[in-house]
Write a structure and sequence with these properties.
The structure holds two protein chains of two kinds. Chain A is an alpha+beta fold. Helix content of chain A is 30%, strand content 35%. Chain A is built from three helices and five strands; from the N terminus they run βαββαβαβ. The longest helix of chain A has 18 residues. Chain A is elongated. Helices cover 55% and strands 19% of the residues of chain B. In chain B, the strands form three sheets. A three-stranded antiparallel beta sheet of chain B has the order 4-1-5. Chain B has a two-stranded antiparallel ribbon with strand order 2-3. The two termini of chain B are 39 Å apart. The chains are: A alpha+beta, B alpha+beta.
Amino acid sequence: MGLSIPLHRIGTHVLDQIALVRSAFAEAPDGGPPLLLRNAEVSIAFATADALPIDPAEVVVGETPIPPEEAQRRLETLDRKVLVALTDVKKAPVDTRGRLILRIVY
Amino acid sequence: MVRISDIIGALMRGITTARIQSDIHSAAAAQAYLNDEQLRQYPVPRTEIRQADVSLKVSILDTVQKNLDTNDVALQSLLASVPGYVSSILALQAKPTQGSPDTELKPLSTYFGENLDEAVNTVATQLENYLTANIVTVWPELSANPSKFGGGAWKTQTDNALAAAKTQYQVTAYTSGSEFSKAVAAVSKDWAESEAAAGQLAVDLAITSFFDLDLAVKKDQIFSLPSHVMSEVKLTLAVENYEWTSVKDKQGNVINKLTHK
């Protein structure tokens, strides 16, 4: 079994990973970035760690894309622990499975 | 291990590389058009990427715990609670001498007078040094049996730190009796029980914060997986275009400059 992780930590991890890439990309000759990440939508499949049903199954952070700071704020309330490793999600009962969807604009 | 940042970084590098290759090909085509009598009559074809929408299905193979020193996490939690603990100990009632009546009981802190703040620091520092030097054995003992640790090793350390402070500030209040000792034991047990829970919470939080997601992205890894286990990364990327322009500087010299298109 994989780690049992609160949903907000999964979301924060995604935001951190995107921030890492954005900071790693070199700047263009005139100081602006040559390639801009405008929007990111990341959907993570999960199963509840306590094996209890989750409703609604889709946890959406940003019906329309929102800035990362706002996404971070909305994530704070999502403290349900989940499993995201393939083997855990694969064998989980259907009503315990869900999806975290983050829509971010930069 | 393949992380989300690896995937997004690779996609962004791929778009940049595609743009560069397109420009190189366009440059070669422009030269060919220039050299050909007939082609010269036609516009040079050029592909320009202004925006790209990319989408990639992935699966999370596993959650990988990063290296985490749980003892150190617990130590930080314990150290934060020491000053409050010392204040609780110094608030215990003590007599001036062994033979004093109970009516003369007053908080131990009052015996330190103007040296109280320094005395609190002295006791706290001694306890903090003990925790820091012995956390490898302290945390397992404390978390496994807080009551035993609180009434045993922790009380002993508290007694020693208190005795050292009394000597240093020449405080003669009577703290050797069984009543005072029982009171110290009660406070030290309470501290151990609450800090075992707080320390464990800090460790649990740290564990859920220090992880990586190991992704599967290759066809043979995800081809046969059901849709409900699939995750997805969708990106909208905008390519900033630049072009060389020739301008004159203040001295009238022609210089080439990259400008945003």
